[in-house]
Amino acid sequence: MLKVFRQPDTAVTCQQVDENLEAYLDSALTTTQMSAFQTHINRCSSCQALLQQEQLQIRQLRCEAQLNQRTLSPVESAEIQQNLYRQMRRNIRWKI
Length: 96
Description:
- The relative contact order is 0.10.
- It contains 4 helices and no strands.
- The protein is mainly alpha-helical.
- It is elongated and about 60 Å long.
- It has one domain (14-95).
- α2 (31-43) crosses α3 (45-68).
Protein backbone atom coordinates (compact mmCIF):
# COMPACT_ATOMS: atom_id res chain seq x y z
CA MET A 1 0.00 0.00 0.00
CA LEU A 2 1.36 3.42 -0.89
CA LYS A 3 2.17 5.18 2.35
CA VAL A 4 3.44 8.28 0.60
CA PHE A 5 0.03 9.55 -0.49
CA ARG A 6 -1.00 12.36 1.82
CA GLN A 7 -4.07 13.43 -0.11
CA PRO A 8 -6.11 11.59 -2.73
CA ASP A 9 -5.28 14.20 -5.39
CA THR A 10 -1.51 14.04 -4.81
CA ALA A 11 0.37 13.30 -8.03
CA VAL A 12 2.51 10.18 -8.13
CA THR A 13 6.24 10.64 -8.71
CA CYS A 14 8.65 8.39 -10.60
CA GLN A 15 10.22 7.40 -7.28
CA GLN A 16 6.83 6.31 -5.94
CA VAL A 17 6.23 4.24 -9.07
CA ASP A 18 9.62 2.57 -8.65
CA GLU A 19 9.06 1.89 -4.93
CA ASN A 20 5.49 0.63 -5.32
CA LEU A 21 5.45 -1.06 -8.70
CA GLU A 22 5.00 -4.52 -7.18
CA ALA A 23 1.94 -3.36 -5.23
CA TYR A 24 0.56 -1.82 -8.42
CA LEU A 25 1.06 -5.04 -10.40
CA ASP A 26 -0.51 -7.07 -7.58
CA SER A 27 -3.52 -4.71 -7.49
CA ALA A 28 -2.74 -4.05 -3.83
CA LEU A 29 -3.42 -0.31 -4.08
CA THR A 30 -6.65 1.49 -3.39
CA THR A 31 -8.78 2.57 -6.34
CA THR A 32 -7.59 6.14 -5.90
CA GLN A 33 -3.95 5.07 -5.78
CA MET A 34 -4.37 2.82 -8.83
CA SER A 35 -5.90 5.71 -10.75
CA ALA A 36 -3.09 8.10 -9.77
CA PHE A 37 -0.51 5.45 -10.67
CA GLN A 38 -2.10 4.85 -14.08
CA THR A 39 -2.30 8.57 -14.78
CA HIS A 40 1.41 8.96 -14.06
CA ILE A 41 2.42 5.88 -16.06
CA ASN A 42 0.34 7.02 -19.05
CA ARG A 43 2.22 10.34 -19.06
CA CYS A 44 5.76 9.16 -18.22
CA SER A 45 7.77 7.21 -20.78
CA SER A 46 10.41 6.24 -18.19
CA CYS A 47 7.80 4.66 -15.93
CA GLN A 48 6.12 3.00 -18.93
CA ALA A 49 9.46 1.38 -19.76
CA LEU A 50 9.93 0.33 -16.12
CA LEU A 51 6.45 -1.21 -16.06
CA GLN A 52 7.02 -3.05 -19.35
CA GLN A 53 10.37 -4.36 -18.11
CA GLU A 54 8.81 -5.64 -14.88
CA GLN A 55 5.92 -7.28 -16.75
CA LEU A 56 8.39 -8.97 -19.12
CA GLN A 57 10.41 -10.31 -16.18
CA ILE A 58 7.24 -11.69 -14.58
CA ARG A 59 6.26 -13.44 -17.83
CA GLN A 60 9.77 -14.90 -18.18
CA LEU A 61 9.75 -16.20 -14.60
CA ARG A 62 6.34 -17.81 -15.13
CA CYS A 63 7.54 -19.48 -18.32
CA GLU A 64 10.66 -20.79 -16.58
CA ALA A 65 8.57 -22.08 -13.70
CA GLN A 66 6.29 -23.93 -16.11
CA LEU A 67 9.25 -25.44 -17.95
CA ASN A 68 10.80 -26.60 -14.68
CA GLN A 69 7.66 -28.23 -13.35
CA ARG A 70 8.07 -31.93 -12.94
CA THR A 71 5.29 -34.47 -13.21
CA LEU A 72 5.41 -37.23 -10.64
CA SER A 73 5.49 -40.79 -11.82
CA PRO A 74 2.61 -43.01 -10.68
CA VAL A 75 4.99 -44.75 -8.24
CA GLU A 76 6.12 -41.43 -6.71
CA SER A 77 2.54 -40.24 -6.45
CA ALA A 78 1.46 -43.48 -4.75
CA GLU A 79 4.35 -43.24 -2.26
CA ILE A 80 3.41 -39.70 -1.33
CA GLN A 81 -0.24 -40.64 -0.92
CA GLN A 82 0.67 -43.62 1.28
CA ASN A 83 2.94 -41.50 3.46
CA LEU A 84 0.23 -38.87 3.87
CA TYR A 85 -2.34 -41.53 4.70
CA ARG A 86 -0.04 -43.07 7.34
CA GLN A 87 0.62 -39.64 8.86
CA MET A 88 -3.11 -38.88 8.97
CA ARG A 89 -3.83 -42.21 10.67
CA ARG A 90 -1.11 -41.51 13.28
CA ASN A 91 -2.56 -38.07 13.96
CA ILE A 92 -6.06 -39.47 14.30
CA ARG A 93 -4.88 -42.12 16.79
CA TRP A 94 -3.25 -39.48 18.97
CA LYS A 95 -6.43 -37.42 19.05
CA ILE A 96 -8.71 -40.31 20.02
